[in-house]
Amino acid sequence: MKFNIAIIGATGLVGRTTLKILEERGLCRHNIFLFASSKSEGEKVLFAGKSKKIISLCEETLYQRVYDFALFCTGEDISRKYIDLLAKAGCQVIDFSSAYRKDYPLIVPEVNMADAQGNIICNPNCSTIASVVALNEIHKRFGLERIVYSTYQAVSGAGKGAMSEFDETNSMHLQFLDYPIKNNLIPYIGSIDGNGCCTEEKKMLFETKKILNDFDIKISAMTVRVPVDIGHSISIFFETKQNVSVDELRKVLDESEGVKYITHPMPMLSREQDYVLVGRLKKDEFNDKSFSLFLSSDNLRKGAGQNGVQILEKLIERKNSSL
User: Fold this and answer.
1) 284, β-bridge pairs
2) Which label site among 33, 149, 176, 293 has the fewest CB atoms less than 10 Å from its CB?
C-alpha cells in the first residue's frame, strides 16, 4: 500500500540525507512530499531519478492534504508549530528535534522499538543514538552501573550554517559557531547552566536513561565540537554491575544489532556507514568491572536520517499488518 509521507526540512543537511536513505531503502515508492522554508520555494531536488519541487512550509500548504507519516528534520520552533495538529489529525510524526523528547517515546529501533506508540515519536540526539546502540546489549546482559561520555562531535551536527563557517578564522564573521573551529576545539555544545553542564551533555544524560529504561545509571558527559565535517566519535568509560571479561564484552558487541567492531573506529571510516563502528575495547586496570571503548558514527545517517527512516519502516510494517 502507498502512504502519504511528508518530509519537513527537506533541503537541510539532515533532510537531504534522509531523502537519500529513503531512496536507498526503496521507500520512494510511497507518495513523498517535500517541504522547506519559503527561501527554498520552487527549488527542485533530484529524488528517485525524478525532479521534485520543494513546497514552501506554511499552515496552508501543510494541512491541505492528509498524511500517514511525517518526518520533521527541523529545529524545535518548527516542530512545535506544526506537529501537534498533524498528530491530532492521525498522522504519525517522527520528530528529529528535542522539542518533544521528555514527554513522548524516544526511539532507537535496535534498542526499544516496542516503545514507539502514539502519533508523536522522537528521534534522539545523534551522540545518544550511537552510544545506546553500542551499550544496549551490554546493559541487558551485565547491567550498567556508571557511564562517562567524552564526545568528539562533527561540525555538521550544528547544521548547514555551521558547515559554511568550517574554514572561517575570524570570530567577527561567525553567525552559527561561537568560535572558529579550524585548528580548534570548542569544549561545549549549546548553552552552559549554573552547574557547568551544557545542553548537549544534559541531553545525553537524560536520553540514555530513558532509552535504556534505567534511571538509576550514574552518567556524566563532556561534549566537544571538533574540526571534522561528518562523523561523531565518543569515548565511553563504563562500569558493569556483573563481572565480565573483555572477551565476553567483545562477543556481545559482535552480536549487537547495528554495531560493527573494528580495530580503529574513525570518522573517515564511519561516513556513509549504517553501522556504529566500535573498537579500542579495554579493561580498567584499577577496577575489574570498569571498561572503555571508542566509537564513530555518521551523525547525519545513523545519528539522524537513518534512525528516523528505520523508525518509519517499522511503523509502515505495523500499519500494513493491521490493514
Assistant:
1) none
2) 176
Q: How far is CA 312 from the centre of its chain?
A: 14
Q: Give the three-class secondary structure for 197.
A: coil
Which one from 126, 139, 197, 198 is the annotated catalytic residue?
Answer: 126
**What are the residues whose beta carbons fall under 8 Å from the beta carbon of 223, sequence distance 6 or more?**
127, 149, 151, 153, 188, 189, 198, 200, 201, 204
Helix H, strand E, coil C: the string for 199-212 is HHHHHHHHHHHHHH
Q: Which three cell numbers stand for residue 220?
A: 556524566
- Can 198 be counted among the known catalytic residues? no
N- to C-terminal Cα separation, the chain: 9
- To which residue does cell 561528518 refer? 230
List phi, psi (to 5°) of 34.
-105, 125
- Could you tell me the three cell numbers for 230? 561528518
Residue bearing cell 557511564:
147
The four Cα atoms 44, 47, 50, 55 give a dihedral, to 10 degrees, of -40
> What number is the average pLDDT over the span 279-299?
96
Computed on alpha carbons and rounded to an integer, the radius of gyration of the chain in Å comes to: 20
How many whole angstroms separate alpha carbon 146 and alpha carbon 291? 10
CA distance 96 to 103: 14
CA-nearest of 127, 116, 139, 99 to 256 is 139
| pLDDT for res 303 | 92
Asked if 307 and 129 touch (Cβ cutoff 8 Å), the reply is yes
Rounded to whole angstroms, the Cα distance separating 312 from 323 reads 17
Whether this model's pTM surpasses 0.90: yes
d(CA 142, CA 137): 8
Q: Per-residue pLDDT for 157 more than 80?
A: yes
Three-state SS annotation for 254-297 = HHCCCEEECCCCCHHHHCCCCCEEEEEEEECCCCCCEEEEEEEE
197 is catalytic: no
pLDDT-derived band at 39 (thresholds 50, 70, 90) equals confident
